[in-house]
């Protein structure tokens, strides 16, 4: 059935903090930085006293920093008390789902002005504890006990996809190269460097130290080297994986009827969709995410648009294979063809459908609860022509964000139109 | 057959006894390799335990070099990886488990579609499900 929002909803402000490792910043500090950028982004200014509620995407402040009940703390840190504040958790889709909940609340008429946040502080824990925490987004009883880690889940999807469609594993290198090339143009990215620059820096460091200098011929040679790019969960290697990141993002979501109070250039939320799926062992196919296809179908139907009309997409590339699955599940490429897209240049900034111009989770970083919100911040910048050096040349009047939780047990898709 | 609650604890007890048990819906026949109280196919609450053959084929797999802490504590790590897989049992349902009797240092020796057979693995106090390549 075709669903519509009860009333129009618009995004009128967006901000994101620098992504990276910030040992001196807690979640509340990270969020406050994103909030400051959001505040500056509202064309006609905005008074935080107008905000009626905060929807905060956060996966696990409990485990990452031993802090539960995060939303009221964050609300108080930016002066929203006593407004309603709640944390929304759907693993790595927490941010996208927080946005969707805010959209539903505004569409219902309950609120006119809502702040959407996403935040995660992950680097305070050692890597093994981060691995454990992320793995709890799968089934602890039947998957974690079978030795699966988060990269392991996606690695299993990669082997299934490769077997089904004949993809050579090295095809995934192209996704990493493309997203690092985009990330190099994003001053908020954790890895604002191309893979070539990372490689050159390592060679220069080896030269400085007077040790043996690796003789990589090119980026492909570098990525093939198990010393430089070791396996994490074969066939996925280090450069197939998004990093461990601290970061936050924020959006100002309002009823369309009050949008002009804030800006003459709002983004209209044209479509929203969300779906769930069983854990990996409850699926029928490992080479596609059913929840993503379902969420996309809902969002396209609500928006009344088709995949070929989308001008730009931010998709959930927690691992390189995830981007391949995403662009197929979203209908941007036919099943079995997505693995060629990055190598062909189709998904680059200059390509037919630019994907992850921000650098994606791969290069920008993946503070899990913030990622879904940060994707929409990128759409905001690109659609308004404010993306700086990474601004795409084409006019982006229609764009899409795709945010996955866990191994695809949750997916949320949003389609935005420039009003 | 056996009167045992449809819980993970019961499933793990069966496994310790050397049996891979699943549940079957008496109404629609749907099979699940893990216990449930409600049939996910037809939502009827009329299930029974059934013993599974334990034979199946690999649907997807990985060799893990960065393990979670329980496996790191068991000695696995960057230089001592292990393999895990999603297995499609011959009766239809899927299940996740470690692969045993394979060489994790040679992932190219593993294949999607590879035939495997269930095996109970004792790791210290813990009892785990494993799958070993057939033949
Ligand atoms: Zn049934």
Automatic annotation (TrEMBL), chain A:
Record flagged with keyword Transferase: yes
Lineage, highest ranks first: Bacteria, Candidatus Bipolaricaulota, Candidatus Bipolaricaulia, Candidatus Bipolaricaulales, Candidatus Bipolaricaulaceae
InterPro entries in UniProt: Thiolase (IPR002155), Thiolase-like (IPR016039), Thiolase_C_2 (IPR055140), Thiolase_N (IPR020616)
Name of this protein: Acetyl CoA synthase (Acetyl-CoA c-acetyltransferase)
Taxonomy, superkingdom: Bacteria
PANTHER family reported for this sequence: ACETYL-COA C-ACETYLTRANSFERASE, ACETYL-COA C-ACYLTRANSFERASE
Keywords for the protein's UniProt record, in alphabetical order: Transferase
Secretion signal, residue range per the UniProt entry: none
Thiolase C-terminal domain location: 282-418
A GO term, aspect molecular function: acyltransferase activity, transferring groups other than amino-acyl groups
Domain Thiolase N-terminal: 9-256
TrEMBL record, chain B:
InterPro entries recorded: ChsH2_C, ChsH2_Znr, NA-bd_OB-fold, Thioester_dehydratase-like
Domain of life: Bacteria
Pfam family, one: OB_ChsH2_C
Domain (ChsH2 rubredoxin-like zinc ribbon) ranges: 14-48
Protein name: DUF35 domain-containing protein
Upper classification of the organism: Bacteria, Candidatus Bipolaricaulota, Candidatus Bipolaricaulia, Candidatus Bipolaricaulales, Candidatus Bipolaricaulaceae
Organism: Bipolaricaulis sibiricus
Annotated TM spans: none
Annotated ranges, domain ChsH2 C-terminal OB-fold: 49-120
């Amino acid at each position: 059935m075709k669903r519509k929002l009860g009333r129009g909803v618009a995004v009128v402000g967006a901000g994101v903090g620098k992504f990276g490792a910030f040992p001196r910043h807690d979640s509340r500090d990270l969020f406050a930085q994103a909030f400051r950028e959001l505040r500056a982004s509202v064309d006609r200014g905005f008074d935080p006293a107008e905000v009626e509620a905060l929807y905060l995407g956060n996966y696990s402040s409990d485990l990452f920093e031993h802090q539960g009940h995060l939303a009221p703390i964050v609300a108080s840190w930016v002066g929203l008390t006593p407004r309603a504040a709640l944390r929304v958790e759907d693993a790595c889709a927490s941010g996208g789902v927080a946005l969707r909940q805010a959209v539903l609340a505004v569409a219902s008429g309950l609120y006119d002005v809502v702040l959407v946040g996403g935040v995660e502080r992950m680097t305070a824990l050692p890597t093994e504890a981060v691995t454990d925490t992320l793995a709890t987004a799968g089934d602890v009883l039947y998957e974690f006990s079978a030795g699966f880690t988060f990269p392991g889940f996606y690695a299993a999807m990669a082997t299934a996809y490769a077997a089904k469609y004949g993809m050579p594993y090295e095809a995934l290198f192209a996704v990493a190269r493309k997203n690092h090339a985009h990330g190099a143009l994003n001053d908020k990215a954790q890895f604002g460097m191309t893979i070539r620059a990372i490689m050159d820096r390592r060679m220069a460091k080896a030269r400085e130290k007077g040790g043996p200098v690796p003789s990589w011929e090119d980026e492909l040679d570098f990525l093939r080297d198990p010393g430089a790019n070791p396996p994490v969960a074969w066939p996925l290697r280090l450069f197939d994986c998004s990093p461990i990141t601290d970061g936050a993002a924020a959006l100002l979501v309002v009823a369309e009827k009050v949008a002009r109070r804030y800006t003459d250039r709002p983004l209209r939320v044209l479509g929203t969709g969300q779906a769930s799926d069983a854990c990996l062992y409850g699926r029928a196919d490992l080479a596609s995410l059913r929840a993503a296809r379902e969420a996309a179908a809902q969002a396209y139907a609500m928006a009344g648009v088709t995949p070929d009309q989308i001008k730009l997409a931010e998709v959930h590339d927690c691992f390189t294979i995830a981007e391949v699955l995403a662009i197929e599940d979203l209908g941007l490429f036919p099943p079995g063809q997505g693995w060629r897209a990055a190598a062909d240049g189709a998904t680059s900034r200059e390509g037919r459908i630019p994907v992850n111009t921000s650098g994606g989770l791969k290069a920008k970083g993946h503070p899990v609860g913030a990622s879904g919100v940060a994707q929409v911040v990128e759409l905001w910048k690109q659609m308004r022509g404010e993306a700086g050096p990474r601004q795409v040349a084409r006019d982006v009047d229609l764009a899409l964000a795709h945010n996955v939780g866990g191994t695809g047990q949750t997916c949320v898709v949003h389609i935005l139109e420039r009003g | 057959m056996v009167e045992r609650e449809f819980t993970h604890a019961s499933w793990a007890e069966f496994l310790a006894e050397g049996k891979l048990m699943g549940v079957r819906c008496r109404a629609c026949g749907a099979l699940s390799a893990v216990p449930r109280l409600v049939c996910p196919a037809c939502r009827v609450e009329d299930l029974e335990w059934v013993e599974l053959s334990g034979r199946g084929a690999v649907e997807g797999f990985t060799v893990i070099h960065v393990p979670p802490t329980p496996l790191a504590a068991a000695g696995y790590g960057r230089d001592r990886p292990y393999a895990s897989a999603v297995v499609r049992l011959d009766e239809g349902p899927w299940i996740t488990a470690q692969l045993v009797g394979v060489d994790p240092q040679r992932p190219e020796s593993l294949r999607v579609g590879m035939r495997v057979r269930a095996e109970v693995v004792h790791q210290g106090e813990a009892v785990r499900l494993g799958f070993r390549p057939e033949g």
